[in-house]
Amino acid sequence: MKKVLVTGANGFIGRSIVPLLMKKGMEVHCIDIKSPEESIPGVCWHQVNLMDSEKMLKLMLDIKPTHLLHFAWFAVPCEYWTSPENIHWVQASLALLQRFVQCGGQRVVMAGTCAEYDWNYGYCSEDLTPLKPATLYGVCKHSLQMMLSAFSLQMGLSFAWGRIFFLYGPYEHPDRLVPSVVRSLLKGTTAKCSHGEQLRDFLHVQDVASAFVSILESEVCGPVNIGSGNPIKIKDMALMIGEKIGRGDLIALDAIPVGPNDPVLLLPNIHKLHHEIGWKPTYTISTGLSDTIEWWRCQE
Questions:
Q1: In 10 A of CB 203, how many CB atoms?
Q2: Which of 14, 68, 167, 194 has the smallest number of CB atoms closer than 10 Å to its CB?
């Protein structure tokens, strides 16, 4: 039986991935600095600070996981792009990796980001697009990926690196794009957006979690882009939310400026995810937004 350790298990992606692992019949151990809002029968929960190296070593020796899914990171909207916390998380992640190998770990999958790529290229392929991150967050994630790759090859460890593009869904931070539009419309207030011409690939968080489980179970190594393969303009996504809520009149396009590092085109090549791993999304943009809107209705 696979014994999986999940970091950041109470986070946006983590809380979606744990039930999927349980359904696969795996022994699941969760790490987070916060206790879960709802307990899942059969899941072993460990409320530990990943930065505490002594407690982490003891925990690893007690669990001896065979597989590791690493999601924990500093993720406060806007702040995470430039925060020095990114450097601390590289250090903590490397210590976690070393402990995992020392305790007999077999396969590790970590969460990367599209911010590792050179966004001037627009269409991002794992094997072709230059890796030229423009932010401290992107630099730290890519540096960790390179160290993970070199260390894993030296130690004979099976590893993969899931590069996440754009996700949305229940439990997302309220200040991010989709929830900010949804919450504004549910309250009957104007949802201020940019021109919205940016073309993006959005994926429901449940599908992101499912993709990571498929990567974990596969033998594919190295970076894997995670996306839907169905690009959509941001303005069309906002208008779809407006139509579903019945308040499209409150969508204000061109009401806020576009950021200096916000390219018109930013999409993943998902050939490896679809064809080598054999994964495809369950949600469409329409069904995913309906699910997300309904969740936020219950929170307001």
A1: 26
A2: 194
- 70 band by pLDDT with thresholds 50, 70 and 90: very high
DSSP symbol at 256: S
198 in Cβ contact with 262 (< 8 Å): yes
Please report, for residues 131, 170, 202, 207, 234, the alpha-carbon distance to residue 288 in angstroms, rounded to integers and kept in the order given: 30, 10, 10, 10, 15
Asked if 66 and 105 touch (Cβ cutoff 8 Å), the reply is: yes
Q: What phi and psi, each to the nearest 5 degrees, are found at residue 27?
A: -85, 120
Catalogue all structural domains in the chain, each as residue range(s) with its CATH number: 3-167+205-227+270-276 (3.40.50.720), 168-200+231-266+282-299 (3.90.25.10)
Alpha-carbon distance of 98 to 111, in angstroms, equals 17
Residue 160 contacts residue 111 (beta carbons within 8 Å):
no
Structure tokens at 60: 């690893």
- Rounded to two decimals, what is the model's pTM? 0.96
Which two three-digit tokens encode residue 212? 């990571």
Copy the structure tokens of residue 22: 């349980």
With both helix axes pointing from N to C terminus, report the angle between 14-23 and 205-217 in degrees, rounded to the nearest 10. Answer: 50
Residue 54: pLDDT over 90 = no
- Residue 224 φ/ψ, nearest 5 degrees: -135, 120
Q: Are strands 44-47 and 27-32 parallel, antiparallel or unpaired?
A: parallel
